[in-house]
Amino acid sequence: MQNALHTSWIGRTYLYLPETGSTNSLLKEQASAADAASPPHGTILLTDYQKRGRGRLKRRWEAPAGSSLLFSLLLRPDWPAERMVWLTMIAGLAVTEAVKNVTALDARLKWPNDGVVRQKDAWRKYCGILLEGRVSPNGRLQSAVVGIGINVNIPEDQLPPASFTPTSLMVAAGRKLSRLDLLAAILLHLEDQYDKAAGGLSPHAAWQEQLVFVGERVVVSLASAETDLSGTAVGTDPTGRLVIKDDAGVMHTIAAGDVSLRPL
Ligand code: BT5
What we know:
Layout: E1 14-17, H1 23-31, E2 44-47, E3 68-75, E4 79-80, H2 84-103, E5 107-110, E6 114-119, E7 122-135, E8 140-151, H3 169-173, H4 179-198, H5 204-209, E9 217-222, E10 229-236, E11 242-246, E12 251-254, E13 259-263
Helix pairs in contact: 2-4
The protein binds biotinyl-5-AMP (BT5).
Biotinyl-5-AMP is lined by residues 22-24, 50, 53-56, 59-63, 70-72, 113-114, 125, 128-130, 147-149, 151, 160, 162-163, 166.
């Protein structure tokens, strides 16, 4: 597998398990070990099946065995903690670029952390990104685990139940795809994006350009609020928060975390 990679540092340490609970949970656990056994910056942990695949909060990520790309990347950025969201942005950009190159599908991003493709005139979710970071007492991003789940070859009748209509790349493209080719392309873009961000260049503008529903009427559901918020998605601020103008013209700035977004 490593031979198929074209990267210089991402995936040089590469761990594969036929199945596990959650790649994010396991890699986080390994990364917190204080000894020399703790995996290095750029480590990839990949699996073919997760028994307890995780989304944000207590949500689940479900995928039939062998159908998907399910992996986590360990980074040790030592950036200011405020830049943590850059990692979600560059992961989304890398996945989008790779999917466009490998499949020629119209791939975009949905705020805050989803990959979507256009299928029969609607956006459908094929990818979820789960970022978990650890910040040191002096406000630096000590380590971060970027979890990426991509529905590659899930047949239509095996797509999991989901709040935003799911699809797989195979269903959208009408042909089976090589998971390895896609992984290699994602990691190459990710490395490039990360190196630029490490040099201080914010990925915010490029990321915002890829977001669907900006400029459109949307509904935002907050797990912490009883009523939904509807209005026009105006854009995002540099920290990645969504700005909504409600029907009375009042602006609302919404952080990711407990939110889901859908078109009105
Ligand atoms: C996400 O959360 O979309 C982030 C998912 C990250 C999964 C990867 S896989 C490798 C790594 N290890 C892990 O344990 N996790 C990461 P969220 O935005 O909270 O969306 C979760 C929601 O997406 C669920 O509540 C369902 O509605 C829906 N969903 C679950 N499985 C799906 C799938 N395969 N395709 C599309 N939607 C799905």
